[in-house]
């Protein structure tokens, strides 16, 4: 396993609670849209075995052509040891990334794509949308639906409806409106539905989609292959 040590080159305050940490591109490091990585803080590998409290599974919110690895995360006032350390990091501080993989690449199958996310889960979809804007081949249209009760919606300059690009962005701040919207989107019995959020959020979305007749193979989760059946077979 290769561990890439790299430096923070910029910290973007997306909303009062959400920051994006931009990291230098280490030589030889590559990724594709929808990738996640293990993001670790200094000291995580100093003992006999890795200190798991200093490692988090994070989505990469940028694409390689942006020349920076973006890690977008919510840091609340009361937070874990990991987030407390992260909040105090500055430009020039070192972090590590390793085991990078994409479970949710953009499928180009001549279908409509629906991106369903909760809160900062939208960071996983940012690269998919940018990839679609750059090259819309074999994607009929794309619709993003995000629920965020804070109402501090993320990436609103990218997630902005663009009829000329066959792209629609929808933000809601409550569960009732959100699940009504999911049911409406699920009237497309041939669409592909990407879902990113907490495990509870995934389960609820899958339940609603399956009730509407959407098949398991049309639902794409940010989970390893071996984890998917436990969600999709319910």
Structure description:
InterPro entries: FAD-bd_FR_type, FNR_nucleotide-bd, Riboflavin_synthase-like_b-brl. It comes from Lysinibacillus louembei. This is Dihydropteridine reductase. Residues 1-107 form the FAD-binding FR-type domain. The protein contains five helices and eleven strands, in the order βββββαββαββαβαβα. It is of the alpha/beta class and 234 residues long. The protein has two domains: 4-102, Translation factors (Elongation Factor Tu (Ef-tu), domain 3); 111-232, Nucleotide-binding domain of ferredoxin-NADP reductase (FNR) module (Rossmann fold). Strands 4-3-6-1-2-5 form a six-stranded antiparallel β-sheet.
Write the layout of secondary structure elements.
Layout lengths: L3 E10 L4 E6 L11 E7 L13 E5 L9 E6 L6 H7 L6 E9 L8 E8 L3 H13 L4 E9 L19 E6 L2 H11 L6 E5 L2 H13 L7 E3 L6 H5 L2
The top level CATH class name of the largest domain: Alpha Beta
- What's the pLDDT, averaged over the residues? 94
Shape: globular
Helix content: 10-25%
Strand residue percentage: 25-35%
CATH architecture annotation of the largest domain: 3-Layer(aba) Sandwich
How many domains? The number is 2
Write down the CATH topology of the largest domain.
Rossmann fold
In the predicted model, the low-confidence regions spanning at least 5 consecutive residues are none
Give the N-to-C terminal Cα separation. 34 Å
Number of strands: 11
Q: Strand pairing plus helix content: what structural class?
A: alpha/beta
- Rounded to the nearest angstrom, the radius of gyration is 18 Å
CATH superfamily of the largest domain: Nucleotide-binding domain of ferredoxin-NADP reductase (FNR) module
| Arrangement of strands in the largest sheet | 4-3-6-1-2-5
Largest sheet: 6 strands, antiparallel
Helix count? Answer: 5
Topology pattern, helix = H, strand = E: EEEEEHEEHEEHEHEH
Organism: Lysinibacillus louembei
Protein name: Dihydropteridine reductase
Domain FAD-binding FR-type: 1-107
InterPro entries: FAD-bd_FR_type (IPR017927), FNR_nucleotide-bd (IPR039261), Riboflavin_synthase-like_b-brl (IPR017938)
């Amino acid at each position: 396993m290769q561990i890439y040590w790299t430096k923070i080159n910029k910290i973007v305050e997306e909303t009062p609670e959400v920051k994006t940490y931009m990291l230098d591109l280490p030589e030889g490091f590559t990724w594709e849209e929808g990738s996640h990585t293990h993001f670790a803080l200094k000291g995580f590998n100093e003992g006999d075995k890795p200190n798991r409290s200093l490692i988090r599974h994070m989505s990469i919110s940028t694409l390689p052509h942006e020349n920076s690895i973006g890690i977008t995360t919510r840091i609340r006032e009361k937070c874990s040891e990991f987030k407390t350390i992260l909040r105090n990091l500055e430009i020039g501080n070192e972090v590590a990334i390793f085991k990078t993989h994409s479970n949710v690449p953009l499928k180009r199958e001549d279908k409509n794509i629906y991106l369903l996310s909760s809160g900062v889960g939208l960071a996983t979809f940012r690269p998919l949308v940018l990839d679609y804007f750059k090259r819309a081949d074999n994607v009929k249209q794309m619709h993003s639906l995000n629920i965020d009760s804070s109402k501090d919606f993320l990436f609103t300059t990218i997630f902005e409806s663009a009829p000329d690009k066959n792209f629609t962005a929808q933000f809601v701040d409550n569960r009732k409106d959100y699940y009504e919207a999911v049911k409406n989107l699920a009237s497309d019995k041939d669409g592909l539905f990407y879902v990113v959020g907490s495990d509870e959020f995934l389960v609820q979305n899958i339940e609603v989609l399956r009730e509407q007749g959407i098949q398991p193979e049309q639902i794409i989760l940010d989970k390893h292959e071996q984890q998917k059946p436990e969600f999709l077979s319910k």
